Amino acid sequence: MPRRLTSILIVVALAAWPHADATGSPGSSSVLSSAEQGAATEPLVVVVNRSNPVDNLSVAELRRIFLGNRSHWATGRRITLVMRDPSEPERKTILRDVCGMNEDQLKNHFLHGLFTGEILVSPKILSTPAGVRKFIFNVPGAIGYLRVSDLDDSIKVVRIDELLPDDRGYKLRVQIQVGN
After folding, report:
1. Within 13 Å and on the Cβ side, how many CA atoms surround 116?
2. Which secondary-structure segment (H or E) carries 128?
3. Interval 112-164: pLDDT, tens
4. pLDDT surpasses 60 at 90
5. What's the rounded Cα separation, in Å, for the pair 177 and 23?
6. Whether this model's pTM surpasses 0.85
7. Counting C-beta atoms within 10 Å of the first and last residue's C-beta, which end of the chain has fewer, N or C?
């Protein structure tokens, strides 16, 4: 009976998982073309609840968190991962630069982890920066990401490898979509 319940949960998780748009489909490259590399970018920051004592994470630690391989903060509080919709450029940046995966690989990673019990929960998917801010403000163990322009003082920015977005060498950057 427990195995049947697990199978049902996996089917439900698959049905609820957001689907990638055409730009996130297999075969599409998430690496910027040489023409796009000169395009304008904006720093993407990792954010947590203000009560979280974490001030710095390495890229390796961040990868473990965003892949669901680390489930608790050092304080013992459960980590709640917040991600944007698959169609959002912020999510694509995190997948490429932190997780080293595309959307399909991430989906398969979480499905396998949920099925085997190696991962306990899927990320919370939110569609707007305001939704991410509000969720992280209200959930002490939450972690997510936002563009610098979407920040306010209700949440805390975490250093990545001891660097903040204005520091030289900060690597998390999302391409700015310029209107035609």
Report:
1. 10
2. none
3. 999 999 998 899 999 999 999 999 999 999 999 999 999 999 999 999 999 99
4. yes
5. 14
6. no
7. C
**Tens-digit pLDDT profile for residues 39-82:** 799 999 999 999 999 999 999 999 999 999 999 999 999 999 99
DSSP string, 24-78: GSTT---SPPHHHHTS-EEEEEEEEETT----EE-HHHHHHHHTTS--B-TTSPB
How many angstroms separate the CA atoms of 177 and 39, rounded?
A: 9
Confidence of residue 2 (pLDDT cuts 50, 70, 90): low
* Residue 169 phi, psi dihedral angles, 5° rounding: 95, -5
Residue 20 is given by DSSP the state P
